[in-house]
Amino acid sequence: MKSSFRVVALFIYSCAFIVGGVLMGFEMLGSRYLFPYFGGGIGTWASLISTVLCALAIGYFAGSAIVAHYPSPRTIAVAILIAAAYLACVPVTADPVMEKILNGIGDGPSATLLAATALLLVPLSLLGTFSPIAVSILTRSAHEAGRVAGLVYGVSTIGNVVGTLLTTFLLIPTIGSRSITYIFAVVLACCAAVLFAPTARRLA
Amino acid sequence: MIIRSVIFGALAGALIGLTASFAQESRNLLESKESLYNNIYVYEQPPYVSMTFGHNRKIYTESVYNTRDDRDLPVAYTRFMTASLMYAKDVHSILEIGFGGGRTSWYLHKFLPNVSVTSVELDPTVVQLARKYFGIKEEPNFQVATRDGRLFLSESKERYDLILIDAYRGPFVPFHLLTKEFYQIVKDHLADGGVVAQNVEPSTMLFDAAIKTISVVFPQLDFYRADGNIVTVAYEGPERKPEDLASFARDRDKAYGLRYSLIEMLSERRRIQIDGGNVIDASAKVLTDDFAPVETLKNIERHNRKLP
Fold it and tell me: Are the C-beta atoms of residues A87 and A123 closer than 8 Å to each other?
């Protein structure tokens, strides 16, 4: 039991890192999807950043709401898998959606926000549920709660940093934004698969 | 608008340190403003006023205005932007993307007062300062729109005989104004026989990628060397014969009484083989909305490569 717990903890921390990386990587990609339609100004960045933070808030609240009922790696695996599916649809659907928004309501702040929302809100909210549920799975006694929460958030924030830098300085200069989106979808699907694995299921 | 004049180079070596201190003494800061998009400094060095954007401890000159003569174009490449006049089949309407201090568009407006000139500028503060210091006035047939250039074009139903592209923010061009998709939108807004002129900075690999990209959309591409910059003139259809261009140039020099003679500019015209790798790097990639690493390309110097 003890060793299988260690394995699951390792899975979850690794996923926290990767999910954190994809989350911020996708925010950077968001700029590449939005700029051609809404311009490359500070307004577009403000829309992207606020949407990401909004998604995280929704994810944290949603995670804390469901964690009592479904405190298992399965729950986060399902959330990650849906996010992966959403990302996989983005490359094909993004352009028509952006065009529709641009033609429908123009390019003002509300349009840019709506476009950022369409692109980011659903997948990033789903990824946002990760941390609260992960903390709950990894916490075995009340006095551990603070330590575990700190570790989970620390690891995922390092993932954020790595995701931002890797996407900006390595991926965007070498492969196209659409391919990067597919890679992110596959990476998330792999995380979900790991969390669905028998060891992970037995623990919870 | 940019001339890569590097002044205040705190990081620059002794070589330019000398010119920097010289320029600093004789220049007088009229106004500095932090806008939504830029840090803008307006300097006076009689009789000239210049608009510069600060970036990375360097100051990039965007526009220079001769206060004693509003039809003067002190910056070489801005003159060559007007070379496009001898290519267009008709000249009824002109669009400029990247207004800056508005020198090129104002020059065209002054010499072609019956032609509708529209300029698009992202930064409202730039337009405000141009009106304040650069002699830009409200006049019929001269409009300035404050919008993203690509957005303006994709929403516009107009067609233009001349489209001039000069959208720089300090040293950078926003990536969405350099892609195949962007040039396709530009092409869709050209009137029959219309042309596109663009100011391109040729010292980095971004130049090769930009030229490749333009040439994918426009089969014909001419080059004009102007101090440190290159002006490209792109158009559809078969190559214009030099004698046809010359006759257009002579007619229009006369018809508009242009100060910077088209026929003289024509002698600077160059054409190059884009494929083959002699001038343009054979491995340079076409920039698309999906793949446009402009910042990275901008950081790679063009070594041992000829200029067109």
Answer: yes
The 8-class DSSP code of residue B238 comes to: S
**Amino acid type, A45:** W
Domain ranges of chain B: 3-66, 76-266
Q: Give B298's contacts in chain A (Cβ within 8 Å).
A: none
ipTM: 0.79
Q: Which domains occur in chain A, in start order?
A: 2-203 (1.20.1250.20)
Average pLDDT of chain B to the nearest whole number: 89
Q: With cut-offs at 50, 70 and 90, classify the pLDDT of residue B56.
A: low
Which of A31, A98, A105, A107 has the highest number of chain B CBs within 10 A, making it the mutation to test binding with B? A107
Residue A197 exposed, middle or buried by CB count within 10 Å (0-12, 13-18, 19+): middle
CB nearest A41 (choices: B37, B293, B296): B37
Q: Are A97 and A115 in contact (CB under 8 A)?
A: yes
CB contact under 8 A, B148 and A102: no
Alpha-carbon distance A5 to B111, whole Å? 80
The candidate with the shortest Cα–Cα distance to A29, out of A166, A199, A188, is: A166
Residue length, chain A? 204
Shortest Cα distance, chain B CAs vs residue A98, angstroms: 12
Q: Does B150 touch chain A (CB under 8 A)?
A: yes
Alpha-carbon distance A11 to A76, whole Å? 12
Q: Give the nearest chain A residue to B287 (CA atoms).
A: A176
Cβ within 8 Å of residue A51, ≥6 positions away: A30, A113, A116, A117, A119, A120, A121, A124
Contact check, Cβ <8 Å, A36/B148: no
Q: What does CATH list as the number for B76-266?
A: 3.40.50.150
The dihedral through the CA atoms of A96, A100, A103, A106 has a sign that is negative
SS3 B61: strand
Q: How many CB atoms lie within 10 A of CB B274?
A: 19
Report the pLDDT value the prediction gives residue B19, as an integer from 0 to 100: 45
Let me know if B188 is exposed, middle or buried by CB neighbors in 10 A (0-12, 13-18, 19+).
exposed
Question: Which pLDDT belongs to residue A4?
Answer: 81
Count A/B contacts: CB-CB distance under 8 Å: 52
